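Structure ticket #2291
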Amino acid sequence: MRPIDYHRASERLLKDASPIRRQLLGEISDNKFKYYVPEESMVPLKSFYR
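Resolution: structure written out below.
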């Protein structure tokens, strides 16, 4: 998922966020290409899918 109403979640939301919450907030990488081709470590929710 990517947020459409903001470019990045606020620092307040990201400060103590777990990796799963960071993924849900759209904070995967500073590299915009990684949103479309993420590395395994960037998408912790994928393990629940398997």
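Closing remark: The longest helix spans residues 19-24.
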